[in-house]
Design a protein that fits this description.
The protein is of the alpha+beta class and 86 residues long. The protein has one domain. The chain contains two helices and two strands; from the N terminus they run ββαα. A hairpin with a 2-residue loop joins strand 1 and strand 2. Helix 1 packs antiparallel against helix 2. The protein is elongated.
Length: 86
């Protein structure tokens, strides 16, 4: 798969399937969608799901394009993905 092609990630849980297609240009909109889905009490989509998928999207774009934007369009942290554990 080359950098110009759309990527796809799938979340399947408890009989439901969420399929997301994205590229570099749609990254911010997709991450916003994850947040809206997680905030919706009508969907079986948690904040944990949103965090895991956000990490996956950033990893996919890192592989495809060599870098991804950090929060609010900031340059990526060293390594492309910042993780916080605590």
């Amino acid at each position: 798969m080359n950098a110009d092609e759309k990527r796809k990630i799938v979340l399947a849980k408890e009989g439901e399937k969420y399929v997301f297609s994205f590229d570099e240009a749609s990254q911010k909109a997709l991450l916003g969608t994850f947040g809206r889905f997680a905030a919706s009490p009508e969907l079986n989509f948690s904040w944990h799901d949103a965090a895991v998928l956000t990490k996956k999207v950033r990893q996919e774009l890192q592989q495809a394009y060599g870098c991804v934007e950090g929060p609010q369009g900031e340059p990526p942290h060293q390594g492309g993905i910042a993780e916080s554990r605590g």
